[in-house]
Amino acid sequence: MRSALTITGIAIGVASVILISSISECGTTAVNTEMDSLGLGGLTISVNSSIGGQNSHVLTEDELNTIRNVQHVQQAMPLLMQNTKVNSHGTQQLDALVWGIDSKANQVISLQVLYGRMLNNVDIKSYSNVCMVDQTFAQNVYHRDNIVGKKISILCGNMEEEFEVVGVIKTGSGLLQNLIGDYIPNFLYVPYTTLQSVTGKNSFDQIAVRVEDNYDVDEAGQSIVSTLSNTTGISDGFLANNLVKQKDGLKSILNTVTVVLSAVGAISLLVASLSIMTVMMVSVNERTREIGIKKSIGARRSTILCEFLLEAIFISLIGCLIGVVVGIGISFFGASYVNISLQLRKDIILLAVGFSLLSGIIFGVYPAAKASRLKPVDALRIE
Q: Which of 28, 26, 20 has the alpha carbon at shortest distance from 259?
């Protein structure tokens, strides 16, 4: 029973370390995917509104074309945003964030089309009242994913405009909407020209930029700002926001949380390993007469030492194997339940197993050495 409880403690410690690392990896991957899908994978260029006397300057097609011609810029697109209300077939109004984008949006942000199509050049040039919606909106309104062809009313100013759904997209893993759905509304995507037309706006809120792979994003941002300043003649009139750095900052926070939680798991693993010494010490005391009999019929000190040391190692090994199976199993079912891909840290698994086996050896040495030093006469005398 003591051995079984010790094995259980080690298994729980190993499983907890594996679970923590798996949750961290899955969470980091899901958040990165979600941030990429929201356009947080490159740069955004905006007007520096804090500069006095220059607040009237706005981003227009001229600035967009200038940015597209800057070296190392892979693609750039205008971006408009509006918090508004939407409804469909008489349902209650839902909060939504409408994004005005162009036909090259999927080259700048990750948009995976599930049903229908992307916005095209015809939609942009003809100011079409068409839109793309995400799965969350489709499920909230129609309780199904494919709603291509449905009509949606979007409140623009004081007027409602009717839009036809031409595509349903999957924005990342949907994790952020699931976790903080009260703060992040439904997402809709419309042609930026249409949004400008219905809101009476001739400028852009921001310009999203995708920089060439393996090129420094900060350096590209400085180059864009410098080019815009030279072109417009306005010094410090534009800002480059490095969204990759923000994403890396969030990833660093997640990694820090993982380290802290892993430390808690490691402590529980250490406590379980300490119980090995307790179990082996009790075992030595209970089997003192057995040790005396073995030594009296010729068992060597090394034989007794190996017997107890191997017993401690096997207790650790069995606990590790059970912990690995349980940890991976729970991680798999958990990832399947929330519909995200399982990310296992093999290095963490090997580290947890190695730590358990090493601690089993270390904490098993003293009881094994004590047993091997017993004299046959003294051991046989004990009842």
A: 20
